[in-house]
Amino acid sequence: MSTIGSGEKVGRFFTQLGDVASRLIKRYLPDAFIFALLLTLLTMVIAVVVTDEGPVGVATHWGEGFWEVITFSTQASLALLTGWALADSPPIKRGLRRIASIPSSQTQAIFVVALCGQLFGLFHWGVVLVAGAILAREVGIAMAEKGIDVHYPLLVAAAYAGLLPWHQGLSGAALLLVATDGHFAEETMGVIPVSETIFHPINLVMIAAIVAVVVVLMPLMAPDRENVTTVPEEKLRAARGEGARDSDVGERPHRLRDSRLKAAVLDSTLVCVGVGAAIWAYLIYLFSTQPFMDVLDINVLITAMFGLGFLAHMSLRSYIDVFHEAIRGASQIIIQFQFYGGIMGIMVFSGLVELIATTAAQYATDTTWYALVFVSGGIVNFFVPSGGGQWVVMGEIYASATQSIEGTQMNYMMIAFAMGDQWTNMIQPFWAIPVLGIAGLTIRDMMGYVAVLFVFAGIVMGTGAIMIGVLG
Amino acid sequence: MITMAEDPTTAEDERAVNADGEAEDALRTAFVPTFGKYFPESLVGALGLVVLALVATVPELEPTTQLELLGGGFYVYDLFALHMLLLLYWILSAAAVESPRVGAAFDRLATLLPTSQAGVIYATAVVSLALGWLNWAFGLIGGILLGQRLCQRAHEDGVAVHYPSVLTGGLLALVVANQGPSSLGALIAADDTGLANFMVDDVGTVGMSEFLSHPANVAPTLLFVLTLPLLLVWLAPDDEDAIDSLEDRDRVLEGSIAETLDHYAPVRDPVDWEPGDRLENAESLTWIIVAIGIASLGWHFGTGGALTLPWLAFGLVVVGLAVQGPPMAFREKTEDATRWANHMAIPFLLYAATFALLMEAELYAPLGEALAATGLPSVGAYVVAFALGLLVPDPGSLWLLQGPAVAAAGIEEVPALVATMYGAGVSNLWLAFLFASVLSIYGFDWREFATYAAAVTAYVSVVVVGLLLVF
C-alpha cells in the first residue's frame, strides 16, 4: 500500500512539474527565430563586457561570422532533407503506423514514442527530427481514433527528446569528424576511431542511463485528463484524407497535366530505383572494402539517405513532392543556422569561446576536466546549437588542453563534449523547428516538458562526466 | 408543352456548360500548364545531365569512381557553401520583396503610371527590366503585380488592355536578372574567399565592377530596358476584339499590392499577448538587428570589401528584416519563400555530380577547346548557356556546369561571363512558366507566349551576339 502511495506521489510530482514548466515556457519563450535574435544581442553584450572588443568590432564580427558554419549548415540541411524524404516514404510510414497502433493507453503511447525517439536519435539526428515527429503525429492520430486521450504536446516532446543522446550515437558529428582522416585538429589529437568513442563501454553505459531517464520521466509527466490537449483537428482530417497535403506543389498550374513521356519518367519505378541502386552500389562497395566505422561520416550518411530515398519512394514524382515539403520544413534551419554562424563569429573572433574553454581548462585537473568540458560544452551549445559547428570552434582548444592536462584522454574528452552539446538542446529551441513543423505545434506547447528533462538528464550526465574523471 | 428553347433552366445550364468548356479550353491551352506538361521537372533534367556525364566519362574513369561521384560529387568537390548560398539567394530575394511595405511602394508607383494599353505594357516591362537588373525578385514579382494593378486601374478607367503583353512584360525581368549587381555568375566569380567561387584557385576572380561596366554588358542591358518594352507594345493587338483582358483565374491581387503581400497576422490578439508574443512582434528588436547589420555592411564595403554572393545574401537578410517589420513576419515569409527554391534545392546534388564527373575525367579542357575551336567562343558560350539553361533553371548552377569549360576555352573572362549569363536569362524566359506557376498564374495561350518569347529571344540574341563580336 505504501509502495503504491509513494508511486502515486512521484507521478503527481512529475505531472505538476511538467504543468508548471509548460505554463512558464508558454508565457515567456518566443519563437526559435526570435530566440536566435535575442541570443545574438546577448552574445554581443557579453562580448563587449568581458572581452577587449568594442561595440563596432563586435558588430563587424557578426557579419564576418555569418557564413562561418555554412558548410556544416548545408550538411545539416541536406541530412534533414534526405532524412525527411526517407522517413516520409511509403514503406517507412507503413512501419511507423504499425508501431503507432501498438499502445492502448496514454502512458504506453508516450513510452513507445519516447523509446523510438531514443533509438532514432542514436541512429541519426536527422531521422529523430523527422521520423520521431511523424511517429508522434501518427501515434496521436491513432490514439484519437481509438478514443483515448493523449496529451499531444508531451507526445511530441517525447519524440524530440530523441535528440538527448544523439551526439553519442551513430551520427555524432564531432565523433565522426575526429574519426575522419585529415580533420582540422588531427595534428593535435590524431584520428580517433569510433570504437574509442561511440562504441566505447563508457559511452554505451552513459547512453543507457540517458535513455532510461527519458523513457521513465516522459510518461510520468502526463497531465490529468482535464489538461490534455489532443492531436489538432486538421491533422486528423489530413490523416483521413479529408485535408490538403502540407505542400500544394502538386496543385500548381505547371503540374496540372503530364505528357505521356513525362508521366512515364516520373512514375517509372525502374528509373527511380535505378538511381538509388547506382548510388547504393558504390556505398556497398565502400562498406565491403573498408571498415564500416572508418568510412561512416556525415557526407556518407547524406549520400546513403539520398540513395535510400530513391529506393523507398520508387517513383520520382513521389520523391519530388516530398522534397518540396521537406524544404519548407527545413527553411528555418537554412535561415537560422546562419544567425548562429553570426553568433559563433562574435564568440570566436572576440575571443569569447577561447575565454570559456581556457577558463575551464585553467581550473581543471585530470578528475574535473571532463565535467568542465561537459558544462562548458553545454553553455556554448546554448549559443551555437550545431554540434559539429561547435566542435569546429572549440575542438582545437579542448584538444590542446587535454594534451596539457596529464592523465586525461582524448576519447573521454570527446564523450564529455558530446554529452554537453546534446544536453542543452533541451532548452534551446533551434532543433525543435522541423519537429514542430511536422507536428503542427509551436515551441511554447512543447518546450516545458523537455526543460524538465534538461534538469534530470543534466544530473545524470554531469555525474557521469565526474565519474569518468574519477575512474578514468 | 415546354420546349427546350423555352426552358430557361436548361438554356442557362447549356450556357454555363459552354462557358465551363471554354474556360477549360483556355486553361488547357494556357502556357503554364501546357509547357509544364512537357517540362520533365528540374530533378529529371539534372538526372539526364548526370547520365550523359556518366556515359561521357566511361573511357576516363573507373566505374567505382563514377558511382562515387554520382552520389557524392557534392562533397568530393566541397560544393556545400555554394549550394546553401544559391538556396538563400532565391529565398531571401523573395522575402525581401513579398512584404506590405514593398507592396505599398509598388502601389504608389502604380498611381504615377499611365493606364492606356501602350502605357501599361511599356511601364510594366520597363519596371520589370530595371528592377530585374537589380534583383530578380523585385523585377519578376514586382513587375507581375504592378502589371496586374495597372490592368485593374485601366479597367476602372474603361480602357481595354491586352493582358498577355502585360504579363510578358512582367516576365522580362528574367532576361536581364543575371546582368546586374545580383547576377549569380558574377557574384560567384567575384568571390575571392572561395566560399562560392569553385574556380578561385584555377581561374581567380572577376571583379563585379569589371562585369557591370563592361560594354558588352552595359550596352545591351540599357538597350533592352528601353526597347524590349517597345517590342511588346508593337506586338500587342489594337483591335478591341483581339484584346484579352486579365481573367479571374490569373488574378493574383486581392485589393492593393500591399494588401496582397500582407501575409502575417500574430497568432493572438494584441490584448492577449504574453511576454513571448510581445517579443515575437517587437519591431524594435528588428530595428536593432537591422542597425547592427547595416554597421557590418558599412564596415565591409567601407574598407574596400567586394560585393560577392555571401555579402549579397547578408544584405538581403538585412533588407528582408527591415521590410517585413515584426521578426515573426520575416520568419514566416522565409518559410513560405522556399517555394521559389524548389527548382534547384535537390537537383543541385545532381548538378554537382555532373560537374564532379567532368572535372575528375578532365573533360572540361576538351570542352573548352571545342568552344574555342568555333572561332566565336563567347557566342558559343551564349548558345550553350541557352541550351543548357532549358534544363537548368538556376543560373548559378548553370555557371557551375559551364564555367569551367568557358575558363578552359582560354577566352576573355568578362565577355564570356556576360554571354553565359545572357544565355541563362533568355532560357529562363522560356522557363517562365515555372516562375509564374509559383504565383499560381496559368497565363495565356501558349502559342501567343511562344511568339513573344521567340521575338524576344531573336532580338536579344542578335544584339548580344553582335555586341560580343564587337567587344
From TrEMBL, chain A:
Claim: Zinc is one of the keywords in the record: no
Superkingdom of the organism of origin: Archaea
Name of a matching Pfam family: SCFA_trans
Keyword Mitochondrion: no
UniProt entry keywords in alphabetical sequence: Membrane, Transmembrane, Transmembrane helix
A cellular component annotation (GO) from this entry: plasma membrane
PANTHER family, per the entry: SHORT-CHAIN FATTY ACID TRANSPORTER-RELATED (PTHR41983:SF2)
Name of this protein: Short chain fatty acids transporter
Organism: Natronococcus occultus SP4
Lineage of source species: Archaea, Methanobacteriati, Methanobacteriota, Stenosarchaea group, Halobacteria
